[in-house]
Write a structure and sequence with these properties.
Elements lengths: L7 E10 L6 H7 L1 H6 L5 H4 L9 E5 L4 E10 L3 H13 L6 E9 L16 E7 L3 H20 L9 H23 L11 E3 L11
Antiparallel strand pairs: 1-3, 1-4, 2-3, 4-5, 5-6
Helix pairs in contact: 5-6
């Protein structure tokens, strides 16, 4: 990988179920923005992560699954690469899936940093799927899980059915808005987008 003076170490993590007919060649084409960004000539050349303890980019041909636990040095321009990759993965995914992207500030040293100085770490979650309904389903499932995990600190799980029902209403309305906007040729309302956030300390890398 050729970006020796990169601003970030960028970790890509996710698991995507592929359509049964998708071949390695088709997947390589879908992921071309990723391996080209890494300065490689093919997916196989770029599949190995910067860290030996990470599996990298793997296609399980028997289970039709793409698994990514892969780090590459880069800069903010990687975000444009992600947009292209997500568009391509929509064409080969058989169900909705989330992809976690973590930007680690390669120039930040917690021990040497001046008091009050914060890293430029960032976290983005992107969603792919064969259609808007599949993407909204995985968004809904993640939100429900996050809300339940948060609220179970204060309430029993059996008390949270109303919260889950309200979340389902929100996503039903979002889907109806999307369908209606497509029918009248206008951009979808409430279509959402990638979720991101800062703070809370440095996010550890995924370890396997």
């Amino acid at each position: 990988m050729s970006r020796f003076n990169a601003t970030f170490e960028i970790h890509v993590h996710g698991q995507i179920v592929l359509r049964p007919e998708v071949t390695y060649i088709q997947l390589q084409e879908a992921l071309k923005p990723l391996w080209r960004y890494a300065g490689a000539k093919s997916l196989a050349d770029a599949a190995k992560s910067s860290y030996e303890d990470e599996p990298g980019i793997q296609m399980d041909a028997q289970e039709h699954v793409l698994r990514m636990c892969w780090t590459v040095p880069g800069d903010d321009d990687f975000r444009q690469t992600l947009d292209e990759v997500c568009m391509n993965l929509n064409e080969v995914a058989s169900s909705g899936a989330a992809i976690e992207i973590t930007f680690y500030d390669a120039e930040f040293d917690e021990e040497d940093a001046a008091p009050g100085t914060e890293s430029r770490d960032d976290f983005v979650m992107l969603f792919v799927g064969p259609d808007p309904a599949a993407i909204m389903q995985v968004q809904r499932d993640i939100l429900v899980q996050d809300m339940v995990n948060l609220m179970e600190r204060h309430f029993d799980g059996s008390e949270l059915s109303g919260v889950v029902a309200e979340i389902d209403k929100l996503f039903s309305q979002r889907f109806d808005d999307l369908v209606n906007s497509l029918e009248i040729g206008k951009p979808p309302r409430g279509s959402g987008g990638p979720s991101s956030g800062h703070g809370g300390g440095r996010k550890p890398r995924h370890l396997h």
